[in-house]
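Please produce the structure of this protein holding fe (ii) ion.
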Amino acid sequence: MKNLLAFCLISLFFSCTVSGQEKILNLYSSRHYQTDEALYTGFTQKTGITIHRIEAPEDALIERLRNEGAASPADVLVTVDAGRLWRAEQVGLFQPTRSAELERRIPAHLRHPDGLWFGFSTRARVIVFNKDAVKLGEIRSYEDLAAAKWKGKVCMRSSSSIYNLSLGAAMIAHHGDQKTEDWAHGVAANFARAPKGGDTDLIKAVAAGECALTLANTYYYARLARSQKPDEREAVAKTGVLWPNQDGRGTHINISGAGVIKYAPHRREAIQFLEYLASDEAQRYFADGNNEYPVVSTTKTDNPALTALGTFKPDTLNVSALGRNQPAAQKAYDRAGWR
Ligand SMILES: [Fe+2]
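Below is the modeled complex.
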């Protein structure tokens, strides 16, 4: 009760029922997708649990949770990228969750070994190329982006973007620090312009012929393919997607994930929510609504943009490595001059 009162006083955003009649879940989310609404209403319909939600950028949410500490009303943190889940884990925000259902449905490489967080959808970081400038088969891997033949033809997002940090971290897991730094050096030497913009801007720059090659997450590409705007569909028509490293370790993937907060006032509801995210219904929302890949392999989806991209072999490196190697990846990028 003391906790509940403290929680009611602290948060102006949440309604409180001291009698405990109403079942609630306080969710902090940094997922920036409107389609997530369907996930929350689906959960409430199924369980009768009302969700109170705070949405903010990732690092701000993590900072907020740190500041709130034991007085935080938060039950669950939902965020994108294993690198960010790792940052939250590093500052002690999560408590371990044991759930036979989560362990059965989510492959081991897509969740924390001790249950601090779980991946609920995946996204792949693919090579997007201009069809007029690059012929199919001319480039096959992330490593190829460093080849001298692409001098002046590569556009990239900044190296501090969590998506590139996680890719660099995966590289380090496979090749070590030095080879990763050498690769980053080669890629930076091929830049058509200084790093800028997000994944969508980069796909459009490739379509416009400003550069021949870039890296982007699959859901951005699929979103453009399903866009109502003709110029965005045109950008997709002018470009192709290449699944990197299909002859070897597979394409780099990342997760969107969630974990139960250390001081969660509604722990039972929090676990119910995580189990819901792994349900067939929620898994379909991730795929059909936000163009991500379900983590539960038996999920049937009906997303034409994902179908058009085809199937691929993913890298099965445990995504925990993406966080662990992040500082080393930033160092490699810095030394290579990839800003
Ligand atoms: Fe994103």
